[in-house]
Amino acid sequence: MPHKSEKEIYQELIDWLRKAWWGLPDSEHLMPTVQAFYNPEEAALLTGIPFSGQSLEELSEMKGMVPEELGPKLDALARRAAVWRSEKGGTVRYSLNDSFFVFMRGPFWAKKPDEATRDMARPLNKYFYDGFMDQFREAHTKGLRTIPIDKTVEDPRRILPYEDVVKFVDSQDYCTVSACPCRQRKLLDTDSKVCDHEMEVCLHFGQLGHYIVENGLGREITRDETKEILKQAAESGLVHAISNWREGADTICNCCMCCCLFFEAYHVLKHDKSHDVSNYRVGTTPETCKACGLCIERCPMEALCLEDSPEASNKKGKAAVLDPGKCIGCGVCVYKCPTQSLILERKEETYDPPRDTREWMEHWYADKKAAGVRK
Questions:
Q1: 344-358: b (≥16 Cβ within 10 Å) or e
Q2: In this model, does residue 374 exceed pLDDT 80?
Q3: Which residues contact 200 (CB under 8 A, 6 or more apart)?
Q4: Could you give the residue ranges of the DSSP H alpha helices within 80-160?
Q5: SS3 for 251?
Q6: What CATH number does the domain containing 80 carry?
Q7: Distance CA 23, CA 13 (A)
Q8: Which domain holds residue 313?
């Protein structure tokens, strides 16, 4: 067998990663990103490993390596979020993590990222703006859905279970927190502007939470600690965004408009929306609005402005006015309104997110097909 060059080894890994749900568009920044995170030995080892769980024995046979040699290598790669590792009934199974998980999530969850993750940040940030996120432009169903901040909804009795952030947390048996991967990715790149929001605000639950803690990518916290993080995030003006399916949601991000990949897709890349919206929209009461402008400062979608209002009773004669097409129903403006002139009202037309990850993936492929994208 002829000797392969490093470039050929990396290209084979890229071609393999492209077989997962998330593609890797061509870009001058793709190869530098991959080379920064994987060394040639890792690239060769991971090429061909399935994206579904396999036993160590199955992978050992596939790779022509004894389990005693392969196991530690895969365990080390799991600690870097390149490989998924799970254990059930005494059997450990491994699968290759897709490129979206590796480039936008896992490695950047660590409070102290390894050298390879640090090296990857700069070329990856360039790749982000050069085609990486184009796939979400075609997707009408986003990966995250806005979930209202607690106590910002007009009639709590109408909130469905998957829309209530506190009830969701109360239903979880295992809660964890990690660094925000979007903020971390920016922080590690000296060419990027980073905000001063709290870093440790990315919440995960269930199986994903166990994976994160077992591999040193985050830490376990209590339900009360989880709620306190949500409270502080709301105070800071961060948007709660949950996995966009009704059953088995495993993530709540707390997103800022400057670093969040979905907000950047909207504001910088000009996608038609950021996260999927909640079933709520801001309602305004101009009679009590004092035109302080705090809601305008806090809104991550630039959906509010001050306009002259005959109903306003303040000296300026102005009140907050909503652009309903931009509102995502997060409650960030409502939460800090000093005169309680804003409230989240349930929309007349509501939308149920996909039931689970399988149904979400059906939406993903249907959107790509409708856009004329193969795969």
A1: bbbeeeeeebbeeee
A2: no
A3: 111, 177, 178, 179, 180, 229
A4: 99-104, 115-127, 134-138
A5: strand
A6: 1.10.10.10
A7: 12
A8: 280-346
Residue 72 and residue 17 share a domain: yes
The closest alpha carbon to 202, from 224, 230, 222, belongs to: 230
In a domain, 169, yes or no: yes
> Mean pLDDT lowest for which of 73-77, 354-358, 365-369?
365-369
Count other C-beta atoms under 10 Å from residue 321's C-beta.
Answer: 16
- Beta strands at 318-322 and 280-284: parallel, antiparallel or unpaired: unpaired
Q: Where are the beta strands (DSSP E) in the chain?
A: 54-55, 83-88, 91-96, 144-146, 175-178, 202-205, 219-221, 239-243, 251-255, 280-284, 304-308, 318-322, 342-346
**Do residues 178 and 212 lie in contact, with contact meaning Cβ atoms separated by under 8 Å?**
yes
95 and 58 Cβ atoms separated by less than 8 Å: no
Same domain membership, residue 304 and residue 205: no
132 and 264 together in one domain: yes
Query: Quick one: average pLDDT of 32-60?
Result: 97
Model pLDDT, residue 375: 56
Average pLDDT, the chain: 95
Burial class (CB in 10 A: 0-12, 13-18, 19+), 101: middle
Q: Using the 8-state DSSP alphabet, how is residue 153 labeled?
A: B
Scan for tokens 């036993």, then name that residue: 55
Q: Do 48 and 89 fall within a single domain?
A: yes
Query: Within a 10 A sphere around the Cβ of 315, how many other Cβ atoms?
Result: 8
Segment 327-342, tens digit of pLDDT:
999 999 999 999 999 9
Tell me, what DSSP letter sits at residue 255?
A: E
Asked whether residue 369 is domain-assigned, the answer is no
> What residues pair up with 21 in beta bridges, in sequence order?
none
Residue 218's nearest CA partner among 180, 258, 251, 178 is: 178
Is 363 domain-assigned?
Answer: no
pLDDT in the model for residue 138 = 87
Higher pLDDT pick, 331 / 158: 331
pLDDT in tens, 255-277: 999 999 999 999 999 999 999 99
pLDDT digits (tens, 9 = 90+) for 217-227: 999 999 999 99
